[in-house]
Each structure stands twice: as structure tokens, then as C-alpha cells.
Amino acid sequence: MKAFFEGIQYLFVNILFAPLDFLRSLELQSWFAANTINWLFMIICAVAMVYWVMQLKLHDENGEENQDTTAHSFFK
Fold this sequence. Notes:
Layout: H1 2-16, H2 18-26, H3 31-34, H4 36-61
């Protein structure tokens, strides 16, 4: 049983976290490069928010938005 958990430890520490260890060591040379994962997530979130707002505007312009307070049963 101990070998099973040591195998899980080896998988995560030596294989799956290796790219993160590289980014951590890269921080001393370039802060921006070390935070590439953060930049990627911020770009994805910004694109998703722009898409969401554009879809809201599209539905509002088509008159499909039901803004009545009784649109949901729990508002009655």
C-alpha cells in the first residue's frame, strides 16, 4: 500500500508539477514569463466576458429578454 502512495507522490511531484517548477525558477529572469498561466487565464476570462455581454446585448436588441418580475416562479 505504501508503494501505491509513493507512486502517486512521484507522479505529481516529479512529472505533473515539473512545468510549474520551471515557471517558478523562471521568475528570477522574467516576472511576466513566470506568470504566463495567470496571463492565459485572464485572457480567457476577458474573452468570455466580452462574448457574454455581446450575447446579452443581442438578446436585448431582439426583444427576447423577459424583464417582468414574474418571469420566475419564486418572484411571485
